[in-house]
Amino acid sequence: MSETAAEAEVFKALADPNRRKILDELAERDGQTLFEICSRLTMRHQLGLSRQAVSQHLDVLLRAGLIRSRREGRYKFHHIDTTPLEHLTDRWRGGGARENRCAST
Amino acid sequence: MRIYVTSVYVDDQDKALAFYTDKLGFVKKTEVPVGEHRWLTVVSPDDPDGCELLLEPDAHPAAKPFKAALVDDGVPLTSFYVKDVHAEYERLRGLGVRFTQEPLQMGDITTAVLDDTCGNLIQIIHKPGLVKP
């Protein structure tokens, strides 16, 4: 099974530890402003990331479909979306891989 | 040199005075007509001789886009000390105040962010020892 461009975006997004921390924080409390995400990275993880750097990380996560941004009046909130993760590793876990595991036992 | 005043740019001085007194609990200190607006300040009842907050009209053309850009990213314009962020959050929510950030604990600091209805986000913060009793 070949890797789709969308899956490649997800792997790229997850490869960065700072982006994984952003997802950790959104998993703890979903729906955060950019300011709250920056505060959490600075105060909880001692990451000296600029607001612009965090904004760029959010763009990568958005492109991968791992977060969604929601506008509510003048505010903008970011939400985690784990849908792209659901079948991400099926190609290694399903079908052939399972048969091989059975054969070796 | 001493800091005696700081300001928030508000879209309407009467609305701002109502919010900063009725909701937040500050008290009016000065109200002097200046041109088409007023020099309008509030202070904390816990520190009536302390730093004043000027409710300054956002009439300058640069003020509105500046405010909108901060709100878009959820950035508070300034920060007020409270004894208990969770208690203030519940009290203000009960008065209909909108929060863009619920109380968040980070080490010994707790913060929350609210909308002042005049175009600004305001942070409330508690940290032990931050303000002298």
Stretches of chain A where pLDDT falls below 50 for ≥5 residues?
none
Strand arrangement in the largest pleated sheet of chain B: 1-4-3-2
Mean pLDDT of chain B: 97
Taking the alpha carbons of the first and last residues of chain A, their distance comes to 25 Å
Tell me about the largest β-sheet of chain A: 2 strands, antiparallel
Instruction: Please tell me the CATH architecture of chain A by its name.
Output: Orthogonal Bundle
Number of strands of chain B: 8
Q: How can the largest sheet of chain B be summarized?
A: 4 strands, mixed
Q: What general outline of chain A do the C-alpha atoms trace? A: globular
Number of helices of chain A: 6
The spatial strand order of the largest sheet of chain A comes to 1-2
Tally the beta strands of chain A. 2
Which regions of chain B contain 5 or more consecutive residues with pLDDT less than 50? none
CATH topology of chain A: Arc Repressor Mutant, subunit A
Order of helices and strands of chain B: EHEEEHEHEEE
CATH class of chain B: Alpha Beta
Rg of chain A, rounded, reads: 17 Å
- Share of helical residues of chain B: 10-25%
